[in-house]
Amino acid sequence: DARIHNARLMLAEGHFQAGNFGPAAAAYGKIDLQHIAAENHPGLRYRLASALLQSGQREAALLAFNVFIEKHPDHPQAAHAIVKRAESFMEAGELPQAHREFERLIAVATDHKLKEYAWVQKARLYKEANDLPRFADCHRHLLTDFPNREPRRLAASQFWLGWALYRQDKFEDCLEPFQRARMAEPKELGRESTLHLALAKYQLQRRDELKSELDTLLRDYPKEKIPRPVFAWLGTAFASTGNHQEAWRYLRHAITPREPTKTKVVVWRAAGRSALEAGACEEALRPLEIVLQVEENDFRKAETNFLLARAHFTLKDPERARKAAEACLAFKPQGELNARARLLLGDIAMSQGDPNTGAGHYVV
Fold first, then answer.
1. Nearest residue to 253 (alpha-carbon basis) of 295, 222, 292, 291
2. Which of the listed CATH numbers 3.40.50.12780, 3.10.350.10, 1.10.10.1450, 1.25.40.10 matches domain 295-364?
3. CB count in 10 Å sphere of residue 364
4. What is the DSSP letter of 260?
5. Closest by alpha carbon to 268, among 243, 288, 253, 283?
């Protein structure tokens, strides 16, 4: 009797509206659709599936949503039914099934917001699974398929695309996305984008571009923790060309005076020399002393003692300067270093009011 099934429909709708989803699902399930007007079938099937899901009957709900989708593929709620299935699979950790539903949503949805939602959720799942190539691909789709998204969301996709490429060691490819993200949202994404740009340019060994990024970080984000090897590489790169003023700006961030073994000898050597040449004589002492403790090459020992002598002499400590210069000559260096050490000893003697000794060093 049609009246019985219409009464069941009214009962089911009442339970559904009241939030009594278990009884609603039971009532909907007893309805024979042959006795219900055809125009009511889509809504009834959708609410049956929703009631099953809300009452914890997940497997039955998934099946009911699928029946709804297959029976009414052109219904406005069909895409939302796919969303319900996808989200249920996500919550249950059934990721392949969730991906299939989101792919299905992308294929059938006419609402751009739903398509965008599908790509966002797929990106989230791939990130959690550390599937970086597919994660990057999702954000490419979000950038190319939805150019009219909110600017902050477009900027976020640029950042995450750069992030995924960086973690795949695609350092050249990650530069443009990070630059776009920083330009679009400097407040929200400037710090992280700049840090990643610096790290990428360090990997690419682009000295002047890295300098620009590090200068930005030091100026705008002084508390940012930048790996010491980045400063070390840039500083030694400048030191190798004789630009000690620039070298010391970065090497001072690369050294570990309290834990000397955490810094390579080549970096200590460059730091000591660059600090001295940049006029930071006090700061030059510790690096040079550390080099002397570990240096094995006699010529380098002589050279380091000479640099120490220069630092002490500039700091108006002639006695320490004299001892360091004599230690330099004790290694019997040849050529220019020998001559410069003797000239320095002459200057030290003259500063101590001993012109005879000074003249002796100058003559020799």
1. 222
2. 1.25.40.10
3. 11
4. G
5. 288
Dist. CA 337–CA 24, nearest whole Å:
95
* pLDDT number for residue 65: 82
Does the pLDDT value for residue 170 go beyond 80?
yes
Residue type, 215: D
Coil, helix or strand for 304? helix
What's 204's DSSP letter? T
The 3-class secondary structure across 20-77, one letter per residue, is CHHHHHHHHHCCCHHHCCHHHHHHHHHHHHHHHHHCCCHHHHHHHHHHHHHHCCCCCC
Round the average pLDDT of the chain to a whole number and report it: 91
Q: Look at the chain and count its residues.
A: 364
Domain boundaries, the chain: 295-364
| Cα distance between residue 112 and residue 134, in whole Å | 21
Quick one: pLDDT at residue 362?
A: 77
Q: How confident is the model at residue 321 (pLDDT cuts 50, 70, 90)?
A: very high
Distance of alpha carbon 161 from alpha carbon 143, whole angstroms: 9
Q: What is the largest CA-CA distance in the chain?
A: 130
Helix (H) or strand (E) run with residue 14 in it: helix 2-18
* Token pair belonging to 344: 């320095």
> What is the pLDDT, as a whole number, of residue 145?
97
pTM of the model: 0.85
Return the SS3 of 129: coil
